[in-house]
Amino acid sequence: MEIVGIWSHLASADEPEDPMTDAQRLAFLDALGVATASGVEPQVRHIANSAAAINRPDCAFDLVRAGIAIYGVTPGTGLGSAQALGLRPAMTLRARLASVKTIAIGDKVSYGGTWTATSPTTVGLVPVGYADGIPRAASNAAQVLIHGRRCPVLGVIAMDQFVVDLGSNAADRPGDEVVLFGAGNHGEPTAEDWAQWAGTIGYEIVTRIGPRVPRKYV
Q1: 23 with 113, same domain?
Q2: What's CA 206's distance to the chain center, in Å?
Q3: What are the start-end ranges of the E strands in 55-203?
Q4: Domain count across the chain
């Protein structure tokens, strides 16, 4: 048997003041000491995740395991935003409008009618939903980018689609591009924005996009 590596995983490195990281580091050092005393000489020792790679250089042994930081998403709001940490989001999620129409005053949108038009409103249908990984918890809160402007999500996000407010004088047409999230360089929301709207973390937003969504690697 050849023991190549010894590793552990930090539970709260994204919370700089949490003493658990210090305790885990000391426990890891003790374990390495036990290994050494037993004649084990691993090639690599590693414990640092993205948060520790950014915030805890004392946890960088032979390598670090950058995960969410590679996506350009902050490992935790306690460390600062992606922008503050110098991270650039690398993932963009796009769709295209499936239909565009105008609804009248009093018309309700989506399941449960949780949004009601108070004026004639042009709305667009975006053909992705929670079956594709779009968080239903962001209903009536999230925004998307269409032709350089932010458009709010109206009503409940459904399994395969959701509705957006295109405004009263919209010139949008079916087939126009919708940017759900991206780097934020052109005014589009980021994964961190969606995390805030859904009450979750950026990890969940970028990892939950389902297999029905085509991938393009650049």
Answers
A1: no
A2: 4
A3: 93-96, 99-103, 108-109, 115-116, 121-126, 143-146, 149-154, 162-167, 177-181
A4: 2
pLDDT at 178 over 80: yes
Q: Are 201 and 195 in contact (CB under 8 A)?
A: yes
What is the number of helices (H) and of strands (E) in the chain?
Answer: 6, 11
Query: In terms of DSSP H, where are the helices of the chain?
Result: 20-37, 50-55, 68-71, 82-85, 191-198, 202-207
Residue 216 · residue 98 · CB < 8 Å: no
Assess if residue 76 is contained within a domain.
Answer: no
108: its two tokens: 């309700």
SS3 48: strand
- pLDDT at residue 148, rounded to an integer: 94
Mean pLDDT rounded to a whole number for the chain:
96
Q: What percent of the chain has pLDDT over 90?
A: 96
Q: Could you give the dihedral angle defined by the CA atoms of residues 44, 50, 54 and 59, in that order, rounded to the nearest 10 degrees?
A: -30
